[in-house]
Design brief:
- By secondary structure, this protein is of the alpha/beta class.
- It has one domain: Gyrase A, domain 2 (2-Layer Sandwich), CATH 3.30.1360.
- Helix content is 15%, strand content 44%.
- The chain is built from two helices and eight strands.
- It is globular.
């Protein structure tokens, strides 16, 4: 899972095997370890949940994006490319959330594109 953070927005991009794992398990986790202890790690979790809308939560070095189960099922089993939502921070601002399928980069080496979705712009 690729994670991109810019300002008050976060985007998760998943390759085909990751989307399949999310569909089967209902959860996908990416960890960036800066050291051996859990407190030295950043965790990003995508989770199918009983929430009514896409939400984001941050606690104990873990950012969790929760997707309504029905929407998660629709996204993983159809051509739907992405899910978007906004989460209230409780401080008068919002975090924009985007979860999307990762398309092949047209100018990247083939090994970087393993597991990605075919890029619709690749066809002439």
């Amino acid at each position: 899972m690729k994670v991109r953070i810019a300002g008050n927005s976060i985007r998760f991009r998943l390759k085909q095997p990751e989307v399949a794992a999310f569909r089967q398990q209902g959860k996908l986790t990416e960890v960036t370890a800066f050291g051996p202890e859990p407190a030295d790690q950043l965790r990003f979790v995508l989770e199918a949940s009983s929430v009514p809308e896409l939400t984001v939560h941050f606690e104990a070095c873990t950012t969790t994006v929760r997707v309504p189960r029905e929407l998660a099922l629709q996204w993983t089993e159809t051509e739907l490319v992405g899910l978007t939502g906004k989460a209230d921070t409780g401080k008068g601002s919002q975090v924009e959330v985007l979860v999307e399928k990762d398309f092949a980069c047209l100018d990247a080496p083939e090994e970087d594109n393993v597991g990605t979705y075919p890029n619709p712009n690749a066809a002439c």
